[in-house]
UniProtKB/TrEMBL annotation, chains A, B, C, D:
Keywords for this protein: Aminotransferase, Pyridoxal phosphate, Transferase
Annotated family: Belongs to the class-III pyridoxal-phosphate-dependent aminotransferase family.
GO molecular function: diaminobutyrate-2-oxoglutarate transaminase activity; diaminobutyrate-pyruvate transaminase activity; pyridoxal phosphate binding
Organism of this sequence: Thermobifida fusca TM51
Alphabetical list of InterPro entries matching this protein: Aminotrans_3, Aminotrans_3_PPA_site, Dat, Ectoine_EctB, PyrdxlP-dep_Trfase, PyrdxlP-dep_Trfase_major, PyrdxlP-dep_Trfase_small
Cofactor: pyridoxal 5'-phosphate
Domain of life where this protein originates: Bacteria
UniProt-recorded name of the protein: Diaminobutyrate--2-oxoglutarate transaminase
Top-level enzyme category: transferase
């Protein structure tokens, strides 16, 4: 580990909480250099929904690479890209009635968000974008400006402008009618809110603490955008690709965003890939107006295509995810009940779940205890007050039970005395 | 090809100039779906310095993936990352006397630039960054603000601030002493230039038209930065990894930048990867202050390590690159001489070369003719007035001659009548 | 009038609603070139609290000018300035226990606001300033950024940044607890609100529609600022100098702002003058860091001194103002009751009063009818839905009744049929 | 003087260099409370071109005020405003062939500049404004962003954006062809300069150190603006109203700016007043889009009218100013020759003159010595290296000689030993 402290920037983070050297992985299990295995309830922050080194995808990937197929192509036309586009249309877009054009920005979430924001501003000719409390959209300047976390914002070194923060669903504990504030601002020409270009929202805020927006709230937001001609951007980077059950997390609410960002699990194998989707009529880009060296990383297109064919041609994965999500929730509720004095509670949708432990440091201690017991989890929320569970969707029920047992023990070990919030 | 026009955003670009479907590639040769081969003098815009599907790297990559090694790890510690760091230190940093810390931002060039800019502003507590005419640093808002191209800047949809553009070397045709303007601004408390945090520069501007900064100019810039305590950022994304001969393009000038960005060919195989390097004392990041999902893409660390071991343990690649660069330059000079009436001229360093054809549309027509004849090249420069050559460094002399023959023919076909600039 | 349309910019405004040529004025009465008199219930938008050409001030001013006393002195020391400072301290600051330093910015309200914002940012090292819905603070870029009106904001031609708008008292009709939203943002490190430098507020929003903040709300705001170490700026440009009764409008709430802006009636004679007051410990200005040509306009210091001596050495003016305010309110309530079907209602504090007429165009028509009948009034509010009354504080009860009679007639003439909002 | 240190902000400046209490003034002579007289070669920073308490203007002003004429009218129509507009058209605009509309912003220079910048951005739909090294345009955020002085810029507390600084005439000592840099940026789509809305320039930079732009340079600038459709704003606040000879300082160059700002001496009596003039076709303001409480300060309109009638109906003042300027220059040249070892030199046009004393602190010491000897002068330039002379234009030749004699002595007293720049 000395290599890392000598050579890698202090910005490194996860290696501090998990002080070991990982070497191999398969499915929901990761192994370190001593051969010790860990159950992975983190899944690359949602980038490994189909598990590590998924065998179906692996076979296809080795074939692809072994046959000297195109790896890197910028935005030239390739067979792998064509196949991905056709499959994405057939398996994902058409069945859901979505007439989206597909943009391949640089292969990271923040690049997809930057493309979305640029397009929204270009289309509308307006600058302001509305984001929500405790949102997370990325680290480059445009995406960081719509991200809530003050430590991360402080890293910008310049003021982050052209954005306005609004209360996410239930932010003020039900004391305020939904959208009363935003609607008031939009309808009042003296409010001081410059007419916005767009709203960007996560349906479930992963980094923000597994804050779940109700379907009603999302529909209200979509309606408000429609009324005021604001573009609705759903950032589905962490919650898309089946994390909450359906392929897109917004399907449950029955809304159709104007722009959607996808990344993390879209390649299905942990290969960098990102997409910005938007309604056909919004495709006002000039050729080359937004570019990037790795926007044509074909192995990712290949595994993405295989993942779509394997997991999304029927609804079995979706049903399993909802069932497993139900299982997790029940176990978490039991844990929370056991620690009611510590203020424990549960949040989540599908297989994006959180155990809220408001006592200072509690959630961090739980994750540390879990690591000791062979379970990888991270915290989230503005005060790291949520122990977050994002297991691979392909985690078996037995593994799930094993991990939740470890979690239950870890909470017992970490949360000894009641600590008020 | 209909798939692309139906489903992919109008932002797509290269597929318009190369209207075919690519399937396989090896070394400097790419093949389309009809089996036709093309010599690739573009090399993924410099991301494929060791050629397509380089066999040494390929073997290692297939082994790595085949053995279920870690693919995706965020910034957890992995064997592949440790090996990369140790090798990078041993093969690259130590022999050059560079005491840099290494940051892994998201795996694209623009992410590396954003990290560099954020760090420079954080360290200095200042906002302004100086960039140069015809610079290219990326498409996310921070990087776009230091990019010169007006079409790309216009895509931002918000004003791009906190930056000041300065003349690149020879921008005003030698009519102005180097740095007279910048130095005047820095030394005059009434100049209106807020004290800058940093200067960001490419040693050779690839997208800007293969504009080559002289070593003297770079030394002058480094000296000016030192005098005024500005951080010097060299964006070596396109010109690093041996493109101009040495591993870092700034080695020739004998300068030591405070911050260096690398991407494109650092993985050596077209796998997305990016690094931000900086002097040890600048490492003021908080843990997690800049993050990103794909900053731990281990297959790229693996191929990067193999590439360093294969190509950079001695100076043979560097010497070959310089020799081939000499060959290209001579051939281009001959072509330029043949088209002196069209104002043709040659620019370049190492294997980053350009044939300047100031007649409107000439360079674009040359590239179109070259494509017809089986050679892939792109234009660069603000008016697309430069036919750019970035062949893989591993291109054989025979392939080089073949490509240059095609180029010579293409110029003859495209540049028929003298067109004054 | 042809001169104005030929030579004066289209930006001119009041001359459109009052299409006559004014020549002379005395007390609350203004005369046009035909000799027709008008009761002035507008008082230079609050700049003439002691009436036009107040005789006590006039005598002193003529003496001053007649004796070749200093007119213009930048910020050199003059007798008139010294006398003003000493009197301001003795008559205003000391009795109220206020230990403020006095800055003389350029002699307009917007200059005073700019100085306040600059100082708040300089002292705290933070950028964000919080303002309120329907606020009005001025037209220069800094002040405009904290102004709510969208038409005026649109005139900036650049995005207005570094500010956040918050709901003014009762903005959401009592549906939301006071400061719930602002407090939530301040207390949540993930809210997306960068830590603010200051809050700027009017106690009664004049341009915004005579929106009156309750004393409780102001105390809550002051307490919130104290808790979170935000500077509290009260913009008392329109509501200070006795408009609401006491000299400062915030006295009633018992709060002590960190920074106060004064202008309009501070000179007492309509002479341009502005002050920025701040707590002694905030005086971190460098000499000359904020300057301006007319910040030493001595005739204004002279009349300001006389006005303080005449009107503020006892509480008689304050008591009269409150009594007249009561009279106005009662008359307005009667008018509103008569036009209940048109949704009429009354707002106000002291002698800043408004008759709300939500029917489209109603308030504007009322003012037009009033002008025809010899009464000058203007509208305010985001939709010009409020007929605003700002009579000179020195208006006699008989004049008040006369004006209110005209107003009652004008409303009857203008608001014929019920018009829902 | 204790009053000032106890009550006035540390921002006060001139009172530090002139530590006495001024009481009366007449013509070019100011008197302090001890009765001591000072020759005023500062003239309110150019606001008193016709001297203190000019008797012709004074008589008219006392009559106006004595007859209860309108003092304060916002932008209502008044006789005084009509008379000013008609006179300004007849005496100034028509004879010079200028078809300008007149805007009355708030009565300070910075307000006039803000209005000019807002209008230029609104008309063009662009944000960037070009200003020049060592420019001074005002202290509010918009005007400050086009001001060069770093100390004053630092007071903003927020980054100053949407502006680009360019070299003023002769900034780089003739080493660079005029406008080579600006022209290069404008003509190169890859330069990084976003297409500007406007250029703002002073013909002679007063605060910047009496830097004089040659007529050729101004014509070149006007031509460049015309070619690239940039609006040309001449800030004539300090150099207009005859300071350089003709009414507008740009007349000598024969250019017609698109927008002109006037303030300081426009009222002629030190009364706050400011104008923004612009070509008729640029008058796209909405009614009330830019407003301000004191934009209708009628006593200033009255004295402005009288000043125009008194001084500008023939060319005698212009001729006298040029002659006196010649006298000053000759005397300054002699002083400079006497102090050649200290690097002394002379700058100026008309009666805006400067003695450059590059030795550190020399110019400040000269002004201090001059004060001791009864002469008021200030320094200017980024390092306060210029002793600036702005005497009232009405200063007699005898007074001029008297003041220049004092100056010569003061330089001898202050600049004892040669100090290299």
């Amino acid at each position: 580990m000395e290599t890392f402290s000598r050579l890698e920037s202090e910005v490194r983070s996860y290696c501090r909480g998990w002080p070991t050297l990982f070497t191999r992985a398969r499915g929901s299990r990761v192994y370190d250099h001593t051969g010790r295995g860990y159950l992975d309830f983190f899944a690359g922050a949602g980038a490994l929904n189909y598990g590590h080194n998924n065998p179906t995808l692996k076979t296809a990937l080795l074939d692809y690479l072994g046959s000297d197929s195109i790896v890197h192509s910028l935005d030239a036309a390739t067979t792998a890209k064509r196949d991905f586009l056709d499959t994405f249309e057939e398996v994902i877009l058409k069945p859901r009635g979505l007439d989206y054009k597909v943009q391949f920005p640089g292969p990271t979430g923040t690049n997809a968000v930057e493309a979305a924001l640029k397009l929204a501003r270009k289309v509308t000719g307006r600058e302001t974008v509305i984001s929500f409390t405790n949102s997370f959209h990325g680290m480059t300047l445009g995406a960081l400006a719509v991200t809530g976390n003050s430590m991360k914002r402080g890293g910008a070194g310049v003021p982050l402008n052209h954005t306005v923060t609004m209360p996410f669903d239930n932010y003020m504990d039900g004391q305020v009618p939904d959208f009363l504030w935003l609607r008031s601002l939009l309808e009042d020409s003296g409010s001081g809110l410059d007419r916005p270009a767009a709203v960007i929202v996560e349906t479930v805020q992963g980094e923000g603490g597994i804050n779940v927006a109700r379907a009603d709230w999302l529909r209200g937001l979509a309606e408000l955008c429609r009324e005021h001609e604001l573009l609705l951007i759903v950032d589905d980077i962490q919650m898309g690709c089946g994390r909450t059950g359906p392929f897109f997390s917004f399907e449950e609410a029955g809304i159709v965003p104007d722009i959607v960002t996808l990344s993390k699990s879209i390649s299905g194998y942990g290969l960098p890939m990102a997409l910005t989707l938007f309604k056909r009529e919004l495709d006002v880009w000039e050729p080359g107006e937004h570019n990037g060296t790795f926007r044509g990383f074909n192995p990712a297109f290949l595994t993405a295509t295989v993942a779509l064919n394997t997991y999304w041609r029927d609804d079995s994965l979706e049903r399993e995810t909802l069932a497993k999500g139900q299982l997790i929730t029940e176990r978490l509720e039991a844990i929370a009940a056991e620690h009611a004095e510590a203020g424990a509670s549960v949040r989540g949708r599908g297989m994006a779940c959180g155990l809220v432990l408001p006592g200072e440091g509690d959630a961090r201690r739980v994750c540390a205890e879990a690591f000791e017991r062979g379970l990888l989890m991270e915290t989230s929320g503005p005060e790291d007050e949520v122990a977050k569970l994002l297991p691979p969707l392909t985690t078996s029920v037995a593994e799930m039970e094993e991990g939740l047992d470890i979690l239950a023990e870890s909470v017992r070990a970490a949360v000894r005395t009641p600590q008020p919030a």
